[in-house]
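Quick check before the chapter quiz. The format below is the same one you will see on the exam, so make sure you can read both the input and the output lines.
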Amino acid sequence: MHRNGPTQDVNESLLSVTHPKQQAAGLTAVAVALKRAVEEMGVVRTARTLARVNQVHGFDCPGCAWPEPTGHRRPAEFCENGAKAVAEEATLRTVTPEFFAAHSVEDLAGKSGYWLGQQGRLTHPMVLRPGDTHYSRIEWADAYQLIVSHLRAVGSPDEALFYTSGRTANETAFLYQLMVRSYGTNNLPDCSNMCHESSGAALTSSIGIGKGSVSIDDFDAADLIIVAGQNPGTNHPRMLSALAGAKAKGAKIIAVNPLPETGLLGFRDPQTVKGFTSGVSIADDFLQIRLGGDLALFQGLGRLLLEAEDAAPGTVVDREFVDTHCAGFADYEKHIRAIDFDTVRVATGLTADELRRTAGLLAESKNTIICWAMGLTQQAHGVATIEEATNLLLLRGMIGKPGAGVCPVRGHSNVQGDRTMGIWEKMPDTFLDALDREFGITSPRKHGLDTVDAIRAMREGRAKVFFGMGGNFVSATPDTAVTEAALRGCALTVHVSTKLNRSHIVHGQTALILPTLGRTDEDLRDGVKQQVSVEDSMSMVHLSTGRLKPVSDELRSEVAIVCELAQAVFGPDHPVPWSQYQRDYDKIRDAIARVVPGCSDYNRRVRERNGFVLPHPPRDSREFRTATGKANFAVNDLTWTPVPPGRLILQTLRSHDQYNTTIYGLDDRYRGVHGGRKVILVNPDDIAESGFHEGDLVDVISEWTDGTERAVSGFRIVGYSTPRGNAAAYYPETNPLVPLDHVAARSNTPVSKAVTIRLKRHDHLGGSDE
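Here is the expected output.
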């Protein structure tokens, strides 16, 4: 059954604004999820598909990486946005060769990302050759040979880039990095570079491993949970159930965010009686922090905890833990005691009472978890901020005990698993040595390029081939004009994708689109159903099994694409048994078991009911594999983001009808924005002071210390509860405002949460879109 995608594109003139919602989820979320699913999949396909999401013998949701419960799983183990993600992938809408024949690249370039994504699943491999105006069909073998010719034409393997999105399963990720390293480069940029790279850098320095230390069960044992720089109601909605469960068992929950996020203020769980009636208020306290003030917050709390220890010696600082397991406490203590409390109040925008109340809860807590997401990582001082949050937990002995620890909440499903499988431009020599022993290859040891450096290399002509395994690179990255020009300078761009997106339209001199199976699709090899595995945000590895008939016989699994391409690149005498791996994914997992730390006996353990958990030395045994052999207290200067006179500090964020770069619809229901996306949320007092009014159309101009400016136009001002001097707007529409070189120290992550802007009245006649 075929369903056509929408013919109409976004019309921002239809945008309307209502009051923000006070409660998330509930019956409205159920109704919206089912409506979207039925529109895309039909009634029968919807029922069959949603019943299998996140179930033991089903498939892992292609949305976020929040873990499944280890005990009883509910019949509907998914959220509203998870249902939207599944519907997007399992849609009956298709993008065929006939579609491309009817739409030139120039025509498609004028469409929004929303319109492109809504057209449906890609069905055939397509090519755009130099001088072509339309993509046309190409046979798989010819597509592989085209790629091979370009890979052989470059002056060095380092002139090729191999990007990965978080959706890629473990088996694909392992083979992909193996192919790339066999080819001779470590150029493996991935989406982690743009989101939790700051977390990895901070945690590796502090505790010796760049992953969170808590499990889903720890939420039941916690008595204090801090959720900082995160919006679970939209980005990880199933987390709300875990928070509600913790609250029911007596935990206190503190929300730290510049915007009041509906999910943390009120939650109606549609699968409980209370959810149908009154719901629950998740956050016991809401700290409405200024953008860029989180580092100051954690340092100020550290000073207050040390003062509380002075007042009651032996009751606040866990001396046994600090003395036995930590290094650098004396330097940290000296530095934090000198922190100016007035500066902390100015930087955070919080009152002394709010700070002391929070410090009191930290001092009293027996089991504390600190969670965070992009609100912390995408700051210029994001690494230092996460180190300071970790310092608080170390001071209190909150690592390596039930109900306590660090919890970076990863975004895309399996983004953490990809890193475990070797998708990183700086994998340690121990991993590369194991890879070489297993396969008889010689992996390069020179570090490769991350996402930002990959764009720089394309911009400067140092990279000629771009290969994207999933994702929407153009819309996910900063500095849109620079990124698009960089890609257009490539000799070849290749995208392995399930659906049409903006990256297919911003192409190199030659471009390929290779259609692949999704999580929901049945993957048969010689009549045998194959399964893939994924790792969630808390290091649990489990199987995922698609069951839907693919929309086209031309679709290849990601594993098949990698194996077939590798055979075309290396020929039949390569030491890696690519053809065996293509036929039987168990053989891939056997190799993973011999190479990847913590994955021994992979095939047996991954088939256990909940899969298996990867080792985490700080969590498991309070072992810290750092240079000192201990957990390290970090010392960082107090850095924050002041607001220049007449300016605002902007953060980019997602709409509720969005996941990463995928736009499901045009309603940010919780924030009261309907029918459009070009809005900027501003404090009403700032609106009045600037001489504008709510509803005015403005151009948003970012300003940089080098004197350069960037602009997007035609945004509607919406009065919203933000701290004075702060503003918010959706990405990718505001990505053009973020320069490529505006990155976080020590992680090279684009800084999208601290952009200095000014507003200019939009000229309806002379103004133009970005």
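If your answer matched, good. The mean pLDDT is 94.
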